[in-house]
């Protein structure tokens, strides 16, 4: 199998979590043009017409896009160890955390992603501040629902951690360093406790390291543009 993905995008992270936890060997392929609109996506559009990552390419040539769909497939095809809790309520919480990340936190970040590609002199500070406020609102939602046992849900790694980890790197580290503002962990004791605890899990630590390294590489050209 091949996973078409990048380490910079938050969405493949949840797929890699399952792959690492289940010990599934796949080839990682980085398609062109995912993070640079000036670069053509070329033949990748033949593999995945959506033109986004991730996409899981099976050995028989079938291709499955969309991170949550890929995760569900991997859970069904490789059921052990499971990253879905057995308890229906806990399983619903896993889906809820992922949904809050995708529909609230990611969407709040969009203006910040746009600004990050611009020179500082072209920033719309009012729009940036509005986006930071929306990020905080999304974090408040997650604070309400996040677990208190060191993981996003329950006392072990689940798909929710794969959704949450890259988003918190962006909210707690990337955005404050780039755009300033108050400490994003202030008033979020449960999320702050989670963020202190989760690196103790070796798979979570690997995901954090991969994402932070990718952000560092992506930030390098910015110094010359600012």
Description:
This protein has 226 residues and is mainly α. The chain has nine helices and four strands. It has a four-stranded mixed β-sheet with strand order 2-1-3-4, covered by helices on one side. Helix 1 links the parallel strand 1 (2-4) and strand 2. Helix 1 runs antiparallel to helix 8, helix 4 runs antiparallel to helix 5 and helix 4 packs parallel to helix 6 (159-179). The chain is globular and about 50 Å long.
| SS content category | mainly alpha
Strand order of the largest sheet: 2-1-3-4
Topology order in helix (H) and strand (E) letters: EHEHEEHHHHHHH
The strand count comes to: 4
Strand share of the residues? 5-15%
Uncertain segments: 222-226
Please tell me what the overall shape is. Answer: globular
Largest sheet: 4 strands, mixed
Tell me the span between the first and last alpha carbons. 41 Å
**Helix fraction bin:** 55-70%
Please state the CA-atom Rg, rounded to the nearest Å: 18 Å
Enumerate how many helices there are, as a single number. 9
Q: What oligomeric state is this?
A: single chain
Question: What is the average of the pLDDT values?
Answer: 95
In short:
By secondary structure, the protein is mostly helical. Helix content is 57%, strand content 5%. Helix 1 (11-22) runs parallel beside helix 3 (67-77), helix 1 (11-22) crosses helix 6 and helix 6 packs parallel to helix 8 (202-219).
